[in-house]
Design a protein that fits this description.
Layout (H helix, E strand, L loop, with lengths): L1 E8 L7 H11 L3 E5 L10 H6 L4 E5 L7 E5 L4 E4 L11 E8 L2 E9 L13 H13 L9 E8 L12 H4 L7 H13 L3 E2 H5 L9 E2 L6 H4 L2 E2 L2 E5 L7 E6 L15 E6 L2
Parallel strand pairs: 1-2, 7-8
Antiparallel strand pairs: 1-14, 2-4, 3-4, 5-6, 6-7, 8-12, 9-12, 10-11, 13-14
């Protein structure tokens, strides 16, 4: 049975609802996980999603900042969120659904960006990010009869081919050794598989984010792979395709992130 899930930091769902509608219409994922929705729950454009067949929603919003939402064609159950680092930020929501007779727990994350300087003393935002990552080590991942998928803007490009210049970005927040090592620990100790890199070799350079600062983002192509899809190892053999919708960065008034899509054939 085909099952498709997408993740996208939309950078304001109300501002870019037209782009979301276009994406859903053209690609028809079963589930779309959004980050940085930048609205409160009652401001979320639920009617727009329902018109396209996405009647099931789990929204954890916040006025003007952050916020995550999971919308689905399939019923969602057991929705909950965790306040990581007890900051009051809305950066996580977890939901459960059934597909192909299998139970899937989907964690939708928006990890803090971490500011500009990789110094926990000089930069409280970086300290916040590392504490957030530390708490992610405790994420439950082994549920009897439930397989797990973790998606979202993790704000870390872990591999040297996840950035436009490994050497130049080693001291830049999102690619510093302390961050990439943290993410590797979360993945390895949690027993996760990096599904994007299951399908796309680490020999290949891939990005999911390009800065607004570049006059011509496509020509400069100074990107980073900040958006991720991980899964329980049991899902590896069911993974059929990974796609990163680079062209969405060139849409009118785009997010600086593009959708990442995973497709499965679930027995």
């Amino acid at each position: 049975m085909p099952f498709k899930i997408a993740t996208w930091n939309i950078n304001s769902v109300r501002l870019r609802i037209g782009l979301v509608e276009r994406f859903l219409d053209e690609h028809q994922p079963d589930v779309l996980c959004l980050q940085e929705i930048k609205c409160q729950n009652d401001q979320f454009p639920a009617k727009n999603f329902k018109k396209l067949g996405y009647e099931h929603m789990a929204v954890h919003g916040q006025k003007g900042y952050h916020g995550v939402a999971t919308v689905s064609k399939r019923p969602l159950s057991e929705s909950y969120s965790k306040d990581y680092v007890a900051m009051g930020d809305t950066r996580h929501i977890s939901t459960q659904l059934e597909a192909g007779g299998r139970k899937l727990q989907i964690h939708n994350f928006y990890v803090p960006a971490g500011g500009d300087e990789a110094d926990i003393v000089k930069n409280p935002k970086f300290d916040h990010k590392l504490k957030f990552l530390n708490e992610m080590l405790e994420l439950p991942h082994d549920h009897s009869g439930v397989e797990n998928i973790l998606v979202g803007d993790l704000n870390i490009a872990p591999h040297e081919n996840d950035v436009w210049s490994h050497k130049k970005l080693l001291k830049v927040v999102s690619h510093t050794p302390i961050e990439t090592e943290f993410l590797d620990r979360i993945r390895d100790e949690g027993g996760w598989s990096d599904l994007v890199r299951q399908k796309i070799s680490t020999d290949e350079i891939i990005y999911s984010w390009w800065s607004y600062r570049a006059k011509d983002w496509d020509a400069a192509d100074k990107g980073r792979r900040l958006d991720h899809i991980w899964g329980s190892p049991s899902l590896n053999e069911n993974l059929t395709n990974i796609s990163i919708l680079r062209e969405a960065r060139g849409w009118e008034k785009p997010s600086d992130h593009v959708p990442v899509i995973a497709e499965f054939d679930l027995d």
